[in-house]
Amino acid sequence: MAADEPLVLGIETSCDETGVGIVHGTTLLADAVASSVDTHARFGGVVPEIASRAHLEAMVPTIERALKTAGISAKDLDGIAVTAGPGLAGALLVGVSAAKAYAYALGKPLYGVNHLASHICVDQLEHGKLPEPTMALLVSGGHSSLLLSADITSDVRPMGATIDDAAGEAFDKIARVLDLGFPGGPVIDRLAKEGDPAAIAFPRGLSGSRDPAYDFSFSGLKTAVARWIEAKRAAGEDVPVRDVAASFQEAVVDVLTRKAVRACKDEGVDHLMIGGGVAANSRLRALAQERCERAGIRLRVPRPGLCTDNGAMVAALGSEMVARNRPASDLELSADSSLPVTDPHVPGASHDHGHDHDHVHEVSKENLYS
Ligand code: KG4
Ligand code: ZN
């Protein structure tokens, strides 16, 4: 690690985790996270207003904890990065306001960055610089996309995305039907280990020869699983929870890995990165490894703690922005709940390349789990 590598603090508040990370070059120095997930659990999904309040309460203590862990003073920083979007408008606004306040008070450059590009860039903290190009499969509670990145600070191209539910959302909804609590991914992952993935043949969405090659759909699968469970219950039979979990999980990860490997092959890309909360799934990791090996593709998946939302990923992308001399954002930076994935960062007004969004007023994606 060179002494002149950028020292950047990153703030993430797009959903229910208040994350503050500190990165030096591609070395992680601190990753402090305060989660409000327990407060949302009884509602079966993230409640935006509760998330925003929790961010507000956790923000300053989490920043102080990160600085202490890293053993640095805020004045040593080379920049402050923050998730500018996409995400919950009110939640994003808390992080953006905090980042602006720190940047202004400390006289440091501010980098408003894209949450999805951060999920990809975080892998640099674990496996070193990203190869260019890299194919990325991003699967979380809010998004499921296949992205091709030639330069994570400036060039991210969408290959495909879900046309309905996100992969993590499907895990959460099936867990709700099975009364397993929220979030559903970790518990389904655990139960599936004791079940038979071939017990029930659940449908593979958008997998026909005429279907779009890289788009996903999980809503039909969700309905099929719910109907199957209802039928069992109506017949007065026990629901084999472990087999349902394993068979459902297999249907999701089969489609995800098949499409991701196909996209790599079609584009001649020999590296696949998987990120987002669902990348913590043990079966997804194993099947991706198996299929990538067979296709001669190198797989990169960060450790589970870096896959779910955190501040380190934002700091990782901010650090790359500084290293590549990308323009800083100005203090007019606003949260953009539907920031397109094609904008890895939000430069200052003088560098704006013309996309025009409704900024913090947009509410359409507020409840990602509705
Ligand atoms: O990236 P993330 O922390 O937040 C969003 O941006 O959405 O992802 C959270 C999602 C939830 O839907 C959760 O159920 C899912 O990731 N998840 C998992 C696992 N761990 C978390 N899904 C499947 N298997 C897991 N082990
Ligand atoms: Zn995320």
Automatic annotation (TrEMBL):
Any Gene Ontology biological process: tRNA threonylcarbamoyladenosine modification
Major location category of this protein: cytoplasm
Catalytic activity: L-threonylcarbamoyladenylate + adenosine(37) in tRNA = N(6)-L-threonylcarbamoyladenosine(37) in tRNA + AMP + H(+)
Gene Ontology molecular function: iron ion binding; tRNA N(6)-L-threonylcarbamoyladenine synthase activity
Cofactor binding, per record: Binds 1 Fe(2+) ion per subunit.
Record has Calcium as a keyword: no
EC number(s) recorded for this UniProt protein: 2.3.1.234
CDD domains: ASKHA_NBD_TsaD_bac (cd24133)
Amino acids binding substrate: 138-142, 172, 185, 189, 281
Residue stretches of biased makeup (Basic and acidic residues): 350-370
Keyword vocabulary terms for this entry: Acyltransferase, Cytoplasm, Iron, Metal-binding, Transferase, tRNA processing
Record region (Disordered): 335-370
Keyword Transcription regulation in record: no
Subcellular localization: Cytoplasm
Chain sites annotated for binding Fe cation: 115, 119, 309
HAMAP family linked to this entry: TsaD
NCBIfam families assigned to the protein according to its UniProt record, in alphabetical order: gcp_kae1, T6A_TsaD_YgjD
Family: Belongs to the KAE1 / TsaD family.
Role played: Required for the formation of a threonylcarbamoyl group on adenosine at position 37 (t(6)A37) in tRNAs that read codons beginning with adenine. Is involved in the transfer of the threonylcarbamoyl moiety of threonylcarbamoyl-AMP (TC-AMP) to the N6 group of A37, together with TsaE and TsaB. TsaD likely plays a direct catalytic role in this reaction.
Protein name from the UniProt record: tRNA N6-adenosine threonylcarbamoyltransferase
